[in-house]
Amino acid sequence: MHPWLQNVFLVPFSLCVWTLAFLWMALMVITSVLLLPVLPFRKTHLWIARPALSLCIWSSLSRVRVIFHPEYDPKQPCVYNGNHVSSMDAHLVGRVLPQPFCGLSAAESFHIPIYGWIMKLSQSIPVYPRKSGRTGEIVEAAKDRVAQGISIVAYAEGGRTLDGRVAPFRRGVFFMARDAGVPIVPVATRGMYRLLRKGTWLVRPSIITVYVGKQIDISHLTDDEIETFTEEFRQIVVDFAEDGKLPEGVTSPWSIK
Length: 257
Prior knowledge:
single chain, alpha/beta
């Protein structure tokens, strides 16, 4: 189909997806605010936020397939780190992960009207670009979330991809996981670049495949070992996100194209 003709259909379709997504997210926020005084965050996340996030992906008419590592423990809180592709990445992990989670977000985003309120409501951890003692604050916040049974979702690339490929990982996420004594899990996605990439608001139905690895304990690693581990960890994400290659010993009933 000619690209121009595709856009004729994609424009009204995308408008519908965005409208439904905003309505579901607004309903999620309102309901959560009403229930948080009587229910803990982990309950409101699983019963309200997770279904709302899933509906946003569902409204795009995309199919989601998930491959879990055989040793993945769905009950153990951890730090999830994956490739950052789309503004709907958080909605995807909401559909995929069986645990309540919060995110790492730039501190300035907490001051954005409405969006900042949602960040605070979802117990996101603020990250300041230049602030004395910020590392210690982030580590303590991570310990607090995990103590509540809340996992942390992070994207060590620091921003969404511009070409669909996985950018180098920053080590801050790995230092946080190590110092907080929280295991880290690789999450790699394929298909999100087609669904909604940076630089466009047009939504394209896609087949999305997600690989969720096993929890990895890095609490014993030195600073130098963290650097080596970061590259090894990133390669797991790259192999699946870019080439559809699963780690040795992991099989899938689905064909990956």
